[in-house]
Amino acid sequence: MTVTSADIARVFRAEHGRAVSVLIRALGDIDLAEDAVQDAFTVAVERWPRDGMPPSPAGWIITTARRRAIDRLRRESTREARQAESVALHAADPVDPADGRDEEGPVKDERLRLVFTCCHPALSREAQVALTLRLLGGLTTAEIAHAYLVPEPTMAQRIVRAKSKIRTAGIPYRVPRDEDLPARLASVLSVLYLVFTEGHTASVGDDLDRPDLAAEAIRLARQLVELMPDEPEAVGLLALMLLTQARRPARTDAVGDLVLLADQDRSLWDPTLLAEGHALVRACLRRNAPGPYQLQAAINAVHTDATDAAHTDWSQVVALYDQLLGLAPTDVVRLNRAVAVAELDGPDVALGLLDGLDLTAYAPFHVVRAELLERLGRRAESTTAWERAAQLSDNAAQARHLRARAAAADEGQQDPGRAT
């Protein structure tokens, strides 16, 4: 069977985080581990199309990366050569990612351990999250910058500084102790949420989503809830992911074009994920300790509880956003609240709420504005806003939908799509 570049790309997306995690623990050097894994995939691109896919692609990548790293260490100095020999002695056997071997400690999952390690309190929150997204998800600097709404050079500097801080401060890659976990939880939640967000709607590419990343984020969130079952925000995040993921089968049509929430065939939603997500939301409500992820999950629960868009309890959605604003007073939350306000008080009131939001480089801001302007009959302004949103989107499926909306507004046609 011929191995294509797409096949190798799938292995990269699925196994990059695991391979980097294993190599960091073995080598104690983030840069060396990341470079070695990249080298291994370069070798795979050369060999697999010719020799075929190995029985265990992940094990092949990790073993090849480890050998490349050891070879590099041996070349660099006598001292490092001895270090390399030690590594080789402790890691001579090929690694099978499913073999279950692990060291003692509260965090058993290799990739979740990497998340907790990168979320060391010596690093800034931005650096923690950026570095983990880079190592765990294999996200490019451009993709991470997009998630943070900052220029790519700014994000590149953050990642370089984070790696330098770990190196110069001698921060070890080790199993976090039980007492280390609570202080790192907020950053870990941020990382998992952003990995899921990138999986739900890819910042770049031809496809709307990256299901591998979304699935990995959900898997890690489950691991986190198992590790810290008394943390309501961890439960809330898992609920948010499940309720969002449940809608995935209805988000695109037969040709891969985007279908917005109001127009989705709700019979296609995953009932198992919905049931689990709603059960977790109810468990969070019983704790009576609301946090941002729990409130976002509750908002999603309201949306997914409605039999159709017309029966959505918008007053409850606005009330939940009001609560969320008290805990996370960000412009993105204000933007999402404005969408709900439009359903209660009309598009003119909601449009006024957009004034002053610092989101001009954020495509969803222009989507919401375009929808509100269109509903007010201001089609020329709406067309401009749709076009601006399309310009800001590097996701082909999303941009295609936005250009179609711009064309419909320009022609003065009523389009049934709704911004969410």
What does this structure look like?
Belongs to the sigma-70 factor family. ECF subfamily. Residues 184-283 form the DUF6596 domain. This is RNA polymerase subunit sigma-24. The protein has 420 residues and is mostly helical. It is 68% helix and 1% strand. The chain has a two-stranded parallel sheet.
Strand order of the largest sheet: 1-2
Number of strands: 2
Q: Which residues form runs of ≥5 with pLDDT under 50? A: 91-104, 414-420
Order of helices and strands: HHHHHHHHHEHHHHHHHHHEH
CATH class of the domain at 1-94: Mainly Alpha
At the fold tier of CATH, the topology name of the domain at 1-94 is: Rna Polymerase Sigma Factor, Chain: A
In a nutshell, what does this entry contain?
This protein is mostly helical and 420 residues long.
Lay out the secondary structure.
Layout: H1 5-27, H2 30-51, H3 57-76, H4 78-90, H5 110-118, H6 125-137, H7 141-148, H8 152-169, H9 181-200, E1 204-205, H10 211-227, H11 232-245, H12 271-287, H13 292-305, H14 314-327, H15 331-345, H16 347-353, H17 363-375, H18 379-392, E2 394-395, H19 396-410
Helix pairs in contact: 1-2, 1-3, 1-5, 2-3, 3-4, 5-6, 6-8, 6-9, 7-8, 9-10, 9-11, 10-11, 11-12, 11-13, 12-13, 13-14, 14-15, 15-16, 16-17, 17-18, 18-19
